[in-house]
Structures are given as structure tokens and as C-alpha cells.
Write a structure and sequence with these properties.
Layout (H helix, E strand, L loop, with lengths): L1 H18 L42 H9 L3 H7 L20 H12 L24 H12 L1 H15 L3 E4 L4 E4 L7
Antiparallel strand pairs: 1-2
Length: 186
């Protein structure tokens, strides 16, 4: 009877583990488990109101350099941090009332997939994260988070990552992630 109970416990634990989305994993000597996004502004100050976080002339940041240096491995880590509500000591953008580590993770993901023209977004499947809003960006963002929740945003990013991760590559000239064309199966 005891063996059966132990077997059932192991089976349930295995099923829970398999059913839980694996967003970020730690591989010894590679990417960190998390980035200290809540500390983003402490040593660096704010970023200007226009541009991408990875553009040096816009936001010269050691934190962003660390994220970019991780390459594709940074993406699931950032996705795992979208729900982190720890506030930065100051907003990372001009004119914002506050930002959280989860906000920074989302902004980084958005910028890392935005091409150098600042218009082309290179990650399909995230159309549900684009609400029309004519208010200031911080108002639109806080309204969207309140309406949908951070978990919704995280799930959308995770689904897009899972659908496209094999096609993602870093474009050095554009300083952003792009997707290689789909290969048609015969």
C-alpha cells in the first residue's frame, strides 16, 4: 500500500512538472536565472522617451548589455520576469510615474524584437498585446496591465516564444532579434 502511495505521489509530481510551463531554466555556466531588472535604474538613470533600450545613443545601459550578451537565452528569462511587480527605485523612462521589473522585462522584449526602423515588430503572435490607446504611454501601459494582467502578457509571450524559438536569431546590424523564414515541409 505504501509503495502504491509513493508511486502515485511521484506520478502526480511528474505530471505537475510536465504541465508547468518552463519559462527559464538555469544551465550551469550560461544564462542567469534572472536579471536584476528592479535595479535597472540604480546605476544608470533613466532612458529617454524615444528609441529602443538596446540603442546606445538612447539608453547606454550595462543591464541591457548583459541581456544582449546572453543572446537568445535571455528571451525565456525575460518572459519569466514579466510578472515581477518589484518597482524600480525610479521609473526607467522620462515622464512615467513608476515602473516594475516586469515592465522592464516586457519593454526589453518589445524593443529587442523591434527593428532598427522602430516600426517593424519581428515577433508574430503578439497582436493581442496591442490595444489602441491615445493617452500617454505610461497611462496606456498601466491601463492594459490592469485590464489583462501580467500573467496574460506572459502567456502571450511564452506562446510566441514556443512557436518561433527555432527561427529567432540576433541581427548585429539592426541590433534586434529577427526570425528566419519558415522552411516548408515536403
Amino acid at each position: 500500500m505504501r509503495t502504491r502511495a509513493i508511486t502515485l505521489t511521484v506520478l502526480v509530481a511528474t505530471l505537475v512538472t510536465l504541465a508547468t510551463p518552463r519559462v527559464a531554466t538555469q544551465v550551469s555556466g550560461q544564462a542567469p536565472k534572472t536579471f536584476e531588472l528592479w535595479k535597472f535604474d540604480e546605476a544608470e538613470g533613466m532612458c529617454r522617451a524615444k528609441g529602443r533600450l538596446q540603442d546606445k545613443e538612447y539608453c547606454d545601459s550595462r543591464m541591457v548589455d548583459q541581456v544582449v550578451a546572453q543572446g537568445k537565452a535571455a528571451i525565456p528569462i525575460l518572459i519569466s520576469q514579466i510578472t515581477d511587480t518589484r518597482e524600480t527605485s525610479r521609473p526607467i523612462y522620462d515622464f512615467w510615474d513608476y515602473t516594475t521589473a516586469g515592465d522592464v522585462a516586457t519593454f526589453l522584449l518589445n524593443d529587442l524584437f523591434t527593428d532598427s526602423d522602430w516600426k517593424t515588430f519581428n515577433m508574430p503572435g503578439l497582436e493581442g498585446l496591442r490595444d489602441k490607446c491615445d493617452s500617454p504611454s505610461w497611462v496606456c501601459w498601466h491601463r492594459f496591465v490592469k485590464k489583462h494582467g501580467r500573467t496574460f502578457i506572459q502567456k502571450q509571450w511564452l506562446a510566441a516564444w514556443n512557436a518561433n524559438q527555432d527561427r529567432i536569431y540576433w541581427s548585429t546590424e539592426a541590433r534586434c532579434f529577427r526570425l528566419s523564414p519558415k522552411v516548408n515541409a515536403k
